Amino acid sequence: MMKNLGCFDVVVLGGGPTGVMAAVAAARSGVSVALVEEAGFVGGMAATGLPLLTYHNAYGDQIIKGLADELVQRLVESSGSVGHLERPREHFGKTITPVDGEMVKFEMMNMIVEAGVELYLHASAFGVVTRNDKIVGVCLYSESEIYELSGKVFIDATGDADIARKAGVPSVNSLYKGHQPATLMFQVGGVDLDEVAKEMNEELIIGRKLGEDEESIVCIQGNFGNWDEEVFEENLFPDSRHAIWFTSVRRGIVDINCTRLIGLDPLDIRGRTKGQIDGRFHILRIMDFMRRHMRSFANAWVTQVSSLLGVRDTYHIQGEYCLTKEDVIEGRMFDDTIAIGGYAIDLHDPEGEGIMLSPVNKKGYGIPYGTMIPLNVDGLIVAGRSICSEPIPFASFRVMAQCMAMGEAAGIAAALAVQSGEHPRNVGGKVLRERLAENGACVSVG
Ligand SMILES: Cc1cc2nc3c(=O)[nH]c(=O)nc-3n(C[C@H](O)[C@H](O)[C@H](O)COP(=O)(O)OP(=O)(O)OC[C@H]3O[C@@H](n4cnc5c(N)ncnc54)[C@H](O)[C@@H]3O)c2cc1C
User: Fold this and answer.
1) Sorting pLDDT into bands at 50, 70 and 90, what band is 347?
2) Given a cut of 80, is residue 357 above it in pLDDT?
3) Which of 345, 400, 406, 408 most suits a substitution to test ligand 1, by most atoms within 8 Å of the C-beta?
4) Superfamily of domain 3-81+97-173+313-346+364-438
5) How far is the CA of 158 from the centre of ligand 1 (A)?
């Protein structure tokens, strides 16, 4: 029999960067909120050691503020982030914000608890209850039990549009040739990034590591240029361009983004399991390669492998507005712009042809509220990775600062809908933008 968890004004599904900010924004707006997350922690991919991108446009103007920036300030105060660091390649956005993944889990949990959000961990949302094309409840699975959670407005922040699809929202899978490759993040101890840089001189990003007074290298973004031949001979990567990103906020500890998992179906249990198995084998091979070839890795060891498989994209809903390539390149703004994008189009080729990078408009572009409002189903807002978009703009706004800004907008929109008794699709863009601006979010630029 289903156990009943009661009824909340707003129910958020998925506790990654998008869902956390959605839940906090809604709760701070004065409505009751439940947040459901299938892992045992909040943070999603922000908890895996990836740096947050991107708070500034190519001119250096800050385009993401509000809750996403509050998170960074809190992390800086609690020794969990080195703050925004300037980067040499401006078309990626002017800055990068390295964080300690474990501290992200703590700080996001603090924000959730302080806001009075009811948090359900170890709970997978797998079904919906609908009435007259309106979603009124979700079904959760946890520890062999099934629960029902009712609500007035639901926010799908699962990254895969899990709830929207279950509710019957038309959605599109793999818009660009196939799924972008997945990646299993890992962390290594016993490495000094200054030493790595002597062997591997690509884009170097400088800052003050946590607990240090002197500046040193915090991020290296590049590839194994010096060892191209060996990489090829040993068939180390399945794709043609073996990108590698190192981030080190504490001396000796490096988070590495470079495993390559091509051709998986990340929404099939077999594909996801294969990703975890192949990802671990790939980490062993990469570590063995680096220990043999790079002096800086001679005494390094794996300290952690992410429990989450890094899936770049799956489903996109069909919504009231579809963001286009022209929108992001021309820097279009909308009457209902709720967040500003500014990161490069960073598309990982699903067939292993490497990474296609191209700049967006230098000042940034608007992400309209209409991209988050699904066709056909009421009572639902979709935020984060799976909003309505063509594949090219998706490869820009998928980064975490933009996802957090979308989450904040979704949370405030949901609260406005509850408080006015309207459907989320009838919350006006003007009032939403005003409320976001009052709360310190950035909804316009230049
Ligand atoms: C390998 C990789 C590298 C990346 N590099 C960067 C980078 O350097 N910088 C950057 O800013 N961005 C980067 N990105 C993009 C960014 O991490 C994601 O797009 C972003 O995390 C999306 O945020 P989200 O909250 O929407 O989704 P996620 O971070 O994926 O979080 C979704 C959460 O929902 C939970 N969930 C999913 N389904 C359910 C369900 N049915 N029930 C309950 N819970 C559920 C998941 O457990 C997860 O915690 C990278 C992505 C990948 C995969």
Assistant:
1) confident
2) yes
3) 400
4) FAD/NAD(P)-binding domain (3.50.50.60)
5) 8
C-alpha 32 to ligand 1 mean position (Å): 25
* C-beta 342 within 6 A of ligand 1: no
Cβ(183) – ligand 1 distance below 6 Å: yes
Q: Please state, rounded to an integer, the average pLDDT across all residues of the chain.
A: 94
Enumerate the domain spans of the chain: 3-81+97-173+313-346+364-438, 186-305
Tens-place pLDDT, residues 96-140: 999 999 999 999 999 999 999 999 999 999 999 999 999 999 999
Q: What is the SS3 assignment for the chain?
A: CCEEEEEEEEEEECCCHHHHHHHHHHHHCCCCEEEECCCCCCCHHHHCCCCECCCECCCCCECCCHHHHHHHHHHHHCCCECCCEECCCHHHCCEEECECHHHHHHHHHHHHHHCCCEEECCCEEEEEEEECCEEEEEEEEECCEEEEEEEEEEEECCCCCHHHHHCCCCEEECCCCCCCCEECCEEEEEECHHHHHHHCCCEEEEECCCCCCCCEEEEEEEECHHHHHHHHHCCCCCCCCCEEEEEEEECEEEEEECCCECCCCCCCHHHHHHHHHHHHHHHHHHHHHHHHHCHHHCCCEEEEECCCCECCCCEEECECCCECHHHHHHCCCCCCEEEEECCCEEEECCCCCCEEEECCCCCCEEEEHHHHCECCCECEEECCCCCCECHHHHHHHCCHHHHHHHHHHHHHHHHHHHHHCCCHHHCCHHHHHHHHHHCCCCCCCC
